[in-house]
Specification:
A hairpin with a 2-residue loop joins strand 3 and strand 4. The chain has 2 domains: 230 residues, no CATH class; 234 residues, C8orf32 fold (Roll). By secondary structure, it is of the alpha+beta class. Helix 4 crosses helix 7, helix 5 packs antiparallel against helix 7 and helix 6 crosses helix 7. It has a 15-stranded mixed sheet with strand order 8-7-6-5-4-3-2-1-15-14-13-12-11-10-9. A 5-stranded mixed sheet has the order 16-26-17-19-18, with no helix packed on it. It is 16% helix and 43% strand.
Length: 482
């Protein structure tokens, strides 16, 4: 997984650990693992980032995609980085072309290049300035994602050291890297793996464990101070959804969904029709709350909201279940302080819509909008702080305490001038239908740019975000205004 080792090790010194070499039972592989893999990045056991890698067949070779983000500070060294990268390689993993977007400590760049004979022709854009560069070399050059695969796709021999040339997109250099095969050893999770070590950065070694198919299982820097390890999608999904919904700076590059064409003055929008491509067809299509969803092709759906959602399948009539009136974890609608506050807000309201509007307005004013999640409804009632998830939980608890069936939902909302970002809000059952309510922005109904993708407020409810985040693209089909 050395594709993201530049996130972890630049400026750090590796203290090498001892190794007992075991019998070498690893065979040469002819094809790299054609699959998607997710990785968590940890410093002192605290998760500080993630990375996704996917390899698939392409004409005469393979396409290697990767994207992720990390934020870390170790021994007075700090680094914040995010990246999206694509490498086209031959069947032997030799570099052919690349497209890399990265932001390192606030500086963004876009680099593209193509191998032509014994040189790489590079175009780099930094702060709007475009420069061209040519790197010359002899032999073959490989991308970072090929480092851990190279030994297994050649003659794997314990004790052997391979010397290859690797292109570094951050420094725009071709580096000579040594990869040593140390032998068979267990990972920290107890999995049998082949241990490798490389010196991609001066004075810094990476220890890497790969399985017999070539999948990277774990990487270690400075005897486990920094660990990157393969994660199950459902495990890392909760972490990524938390970052995305908090709209933390580092998640912007990964989770932002750019739109074609941009939406003008979204606050005055009355209806919206969009098409989402690269959709995961295993996900449930959510209806109601002023939204209509339908499949329009493989990996493609069409969503209509607001005044354009004229044929919602579950309306009329719509119904609600008892769960939307009951207390739940972090939605403590039966807590005395929640009940008392709901009654105070309800005083003087004439109907359910007026009450819901008052609850949303009060929540928006009561809570200071922060990046970090303020926790459950009772905790945020006391702290007066929280992000969009916190707002949605507090409003949901108050609404349920006031007798309004309410559910917690998440999806996308449009940020003018940028695109769609992940967000949480609520839906309340009012006058026989589900109505979207955004207690962060004090909207009832929420504006038509609210695209509901997930239901539920628990971590496992957020896990499906892993199937779409960083992948989907949105095209605006129609934007309706008064």
């Amino acid at each position: 997984m050395n594709v993201y080792s530049r996130f972890l090790v630049a400026g750090m010194i590796m203290l090498c650990s001892s190794l007992t070499v075991m019998a070498d039972t690893f065979d040469k592989i002819d094809v790299p693992p054609l699959s998607e893999r997710w990785f968590g990045i940890y410093v002192n056991s605290e998760q500080v980032g993630f990375y996704r890698q996917q390899i698939e067949k392409s004409d005469g070779g393979y396409r290697m995609d990767g994207n992720g983000s990390v934020r870390m500070k170790v021994m007075n060294f700090s680094k914040e980085a995010s990246t999206r990268e694509t490498y086209m390689v031959s069947k032997k993993l030799v570099l052919r072309s690349f497209d890399v977007e990265q932001t390192v400590n606030g500086l963004s760049s876009h680099i593209t290049g193509k191998v032509n004979g014994d040189s790489i022709q590079i175009k780099s854009e930094v702060r709007g300035k475009i420069t061209d560069k040519i790197l010359r070399f002899k032999g073959n050059v490989y991308p970072g994602p090929a480092l851990n695969l190279y030994p297994l796709m050649h003659a794997v021999t314990t004790g052997r050291t391979y010397k290859i040339q690797v292109f570094d997109p951050e420094e725009l250099k071709i580096k000579e890297v040594h990869i040593s095969v140390l032998g068979e050893e267990k990972t920290t999770e107890g999995l049998t793996a082949l241990k490798l070590r490389n010196d991609l950065y001066t004075f810094v070694n990476n220890d890497i464990w790969v399985d017999k198919q070539g999948n990277t299982l774990e990487e270690s820097v400075r005897e486990g101070l920094v660990i990157t390890k393969m994660e199950r999608p459902d495990t890392i999904g909760a972490f990524i959804s938390g970052w995305a919904l908090a709209k933390k700076d580092l998640i912007y590059d990964f989770s932002l969904v750019r739109v074609t064409p941009p939406i003008r003055t979204p606050k005055t929008l009355t209806g919206l029709s969009i098409q989402i491509s690269n959709w995961n067809d295993s996900l449930v299509l959510l209806q109601g709350g002023g939204q209509q969803m339908e499949r329009s092709g493989t990996g493609q759906i069409t969503i209509k909201t607001g005044s354009l959602a004229t044929n919602i399948p579950d309306s009329p009539p719509q119904i609600y279940d008892e769960a939307s009136l009951k207390p739940a974890d972090k939605i403590e609608s039966d807590a005395p302080e929640i009940i008392t506050q709901a009654k105070a807000i309800a005083a003087g309201t004439k109907n359910r819509e007026e009450l819901a509007r008052a609850l949303a307005s009060w929540t928006a004013q009561w809570l200071n909008d922060t990046i970090d999640d303020g926790g459950g409804a009772v905790a945020s009632l006391k702290s007066k702080n929280g992000n969009c998830q916190t707002h949605a939980r507090l409003y949901t608890a108050l609404a349920r305490a006031a007798g309004i069936p309410t559910r917690f939902v998440s999806g996308l909302v449009y940020l003018e001038g940028m695109g769609f970002l992940y967000h949480s809000w609520a839906e309340s059952f009012i006058d026989g239908r589900w109505v979207s309510v955004d207690p962060t922005y004090n909207q009832l109904p929420a504006d038509p740019t609210h695209i509901k993708l997930l239901g539920g407020h628990l971590p496992h409810d957020m896990e499906p975000i892993i199937a779409i985040i960083g992948r989907i693209q949105i095209t605006v089909l129609e934007a309706k205004y008064p």
